[in-house]
Write a structure and sequence with these properties.
By secondary structure, the chain is of the alpha/beta class. It has helices at 35-44, 62-70, 80-86, 101-110, 125-138, 152-163, 200-203, 205-215, 245-251, 336-350, 358-377, and strands spanning 4-6, 9-15, 18-21, 26-31, 50-56, 75-77, 91-94, 114-118, 142-145, 169-177, 221-229, 257-264, 268-275, 286-290, 293-297, 311-317, 320-326, 381-382. Helix 2 links the parallel strand 5 and strand 6 (75-77). The radius of gyration is 21 Å and the shape is globular. The chain starts with a strand and ends in a 6-residue tail after the last strand.
């Protein structure tokens, strides 16, 4: 692929309006070569300052097939440990199943490598704390893979809240769901307890939480009452049109629906629900209620961290109830995933801050973990963030 050299800087390439310094190249590896790794590879291949040198997957031959698919000549390993022992790297993408997130991220950080960790951060709050401890000890960059943050509509949500247009926020309703959306087409690692750990709660629930928590400044979660169920995933009839319905239902060990009622620092109440499967197209729009106004964010029929239509601000103007419609802002960039990868690489090259920092996402993880624990206990619990 040809790139235009910057006439003022011979070490720079102008690509799609971006000025990318290629004098400092980054050696990158991909750990875990399943479905989401394809999106990482597609973005990395658009970066003129990246050399993809290696990858790892615990399934023999899988990493080799992955790199062959993209025409990339990379060294392949069967474990994260083997990869890190044999490669000198600047950064890794961790794209393994949820329960392996913590182990792989910690190993890479301990090896002095910058980490882009796919969402959810991990499964438990203890794992999240261990990851952050390794990050702080290493001094390297750890960014969590929340590409919806780069959506201009998501940025607008935060801009509205932070501007004070709504006044002091006191109640948030958020969530989303899919009528039929259990991700079995991508294998069974999403649905098994020993690999996924959490289901819809973590897979798409983390996006819903980040959308609103990021807007209000990520206040600390204090208590939670949680609920989760698996009525659809355990039902063989749900998978009737898929390849191996009995196997999927028998292997299903996570949640396909979850809900939580969370009290946040600052007196904010968060009412949350998420679903992989349900007899509805959506469990409701996202609503951010403030003392001066409220914001309605339409849901989508297949929730994956996007805005479903024009947003509405409800407020009073000279004593009259007024509604302000906000048209959808089209994303004119190269895509949200590209922006996620590029912002991470720029932070690595420039010793910058993590684009999506662990100090925020640990609160996201604490809520996911708290909902799961509360659901098991059947009562409200206090959310305790381990000391880092």
């Amino acid at each position: 692929m040809a790139h235009e050299m910057d006439s003022l800087n011979p070490n720079s390439i102008v690509k799609g309006g971006e000025d990318i310094d290629v004098s400092k190249r980054l050696k990158v590896a991909i750990i875990g070569t399943g479905w989401i790794a394809h999106s990482h590879m597609e973005s990395y291949l658009q970066m003129p300052d990246v050399d993809i040198v290696a990858g790892a997957d615990i399934i023999p031959g899988k990493a080799e097939a992955f790199f062959k698919e993209f025409g990339v000549n990379a060294r392949c390993y069967l474990s994260t440990e083997e990869l890190l022992d044999n490669e000198v790297l600047d950064a890794v993408s961790v794209c393994v199943y949820n329960r392996a997130h913590a182990k792989c991220a910690i190993l890479a950080l301990n090896a002095g490598v910058n980490v882009l960790l796919e969402k959810p951060m991990c499964v438990t709050i203890e794992e999240a704390a261990d990851i952050v401890r390794a990050e702080k000890k290493s001094g390297k960059i750890l960014s969590i893979g929340f590409q919806p943050r780069y959506d201009p509509n998501m940025k607008m949500i935060k801009k509205i809240v932070q501007s004070g247009e709504l006044g002091e926020v006191y109640y948030i309703q958020t969530g989303g769901g899919r009528r039929r959306g259990i991700p079995t087409p991508f294998g069974t690692s999403f649905i098994q307890a020993d690999t996924g750990g959490l289901g819809a709660l973590a897979d798409i629930g983390c996006y819903s939480l980040d959308m609103v928590l990021n807007a209000v400044g990520y206040p600390k979660p204090l208590t939670v009452t949680g609920y989760k169920s698996d009525f659809f995933g355990k039902n063989k009839d749900y998978f009737r049109t898929e390849g191996n319905p009995e196997s999927y239902a028998d292997l299903f060990g996570v949640d396909d629906f979850a809900a939580g009622f969370i009290r946040l620092e600052g007196g904010i109440i968060l009412d949350f629900r998420i679903a992989w499967a349900m007899h509805l197209d959506t469990p409701g729009d996202t609503i951010i209620m403030g003392k001066k106004g409220s914001l309605r964010i339409p849901s989508t029929e297949c929730w994956n961290g996007t805005v479903g239509g024009e947003m509405t601000i409800y407020h009073d103007l000279e004593g009259l109830g007024t509604e302000t419609k906000l048209p959808i802002i089209e994303d004119t960039s190269k895509g949200l995933f590209y922006q996620k990868i590029r912002s991470f690489l720029d932070a690595c090259k420039n010793d910058g801050a993590a684009p999506v920092p662990s100090c925020e996402i640990i609160y996201n993880q604490a809520i996911l973990d708290g909902i799961a624990r509360s659901a098991e206990l059947g009562r409200e619990i206090e959310i305790v963030i381990p000391e880092i």
